[in-house]
Amino acid sequence: MTTTEGTPPQLLLVGGAAPNPLSVDVAVQTLAQARARGLRTHVTNQEATVAATPEVSGAADAASAVDFEDPAGSAKWAAARRAEGERFDVALAVREMAQVAAAEVAAELGAPGNPPEAVRRIRTKDACRAALTAAGFPQPAVRLCADEAGARAFLAQSTGPWVVKPRDAMGSQGVSRVDGPDGLAAAIGLLPNRNPFLVEEFVDGPEFSVEGLFLGGEPTVLAVTAKEKLPPPFFVEVAHVLPAALPEADRAEIDRQVRAALTALGLRFGAFHVELWLTARGVVLGEVHGRIGGGWIHTMLPHVFPGLEFFGHILDDALGRPVELPAAAPRAAASRFLAPGPGRLVAVEGWDEVLAHPGLLYAELTVRPGDVINPFRSGQDRVGAVVVGAGSPAAAERLARELADSVRFVTEEPSGAEPSGAESAEEAGA
Q1: Model pTM?
Q2: Averaged pLDDT for residues 121-147
Q3: What is the average per-residue pLDDT within 380-405?
Q4: Which of 29, 283, 343, 392 is the most exposed place for a label (fewest CB within 10 A)?
Q5: Where are the residues of the annotated region Disordered (predicted)?
């Protein structure tokens, strides 16, 4: 896309950030990389979230209250601003839930973007599975169920174990494994709402994700990330290692399958984060996202690719500017999430030592004494994270684990009395 000479191009960041540290950091980083390229920036978000994320609004040239949960309304707002003389050259969303709105806005403005129907397809998990199956990719059997009776019928017709999950959610919220009909009611009870839900066959094998971006409409894989998850019945990610220590043949096959799948799904713009398993029958693709991966992957990538400006490269490509991606360095990064046992937090020990470690890339602690720590069942139950860099995947994984394990959470029963030493306090490693 070309811009009028003398007029700086403008980025419309649709949906801004959610009010949590990771989302805010991604949005602020996007805006900073836009500004470094001479772009003006305008952020939209729901009114309450604009107020709750002042760091994002402060990093932009303008901010407006526009509800990304109304994609058609977002496109109508953008068209009205254009009619008033404001120009948007790129419409981009870095949040999962704002992807459809960004695609609708881009289509309305004639700006680079993904087709709205393609984004809706990948945002609806069973529709994405159906599209991948139709394109010839191996997929687990899946059924959209309105109630427990429908789920039981699917279990009777398919091969277990199974996974019960929301049709449209993130952060492993409401996702659990069932090994037979007896566990179905409890799994359905964990779902975040009463909407129709999915039951699909469990895929056995190590899980990975693929991080990349589109250049010239073609997918470019940057890295494969190894994941560690809680054991069933829950599937919450507790650690990442980037790049994954994989044989070259596996890495090349993952690259081929992911690029082919993204093309088959009709995606062509922005970022991508694709989940998959390596199984006895080869690569089995999981969920497909039109955004960068969570879990501080946006912090890990520049450590492995010195000079990488992930969002800036997307903007350069959208504006028709040349993009030269930096080569990977001989080093790795890893993250580990803090998930102590449940209880009311009395004290945290060892955190200052973590913050002082020279290998640390990022650390956060989201609880303080007096807060109640919940059982670890979804990404929302994490209480912090450490992200480190090292010379190899094994060294990075080891360091992240050592730092996380060195943090001691002293807790008591939420309704109990004041702790009195080791006899009444529990120390839980992360």
Answers
A1: 0.90
A2: 95
A3: 95
A4: 392
A5: 409-430
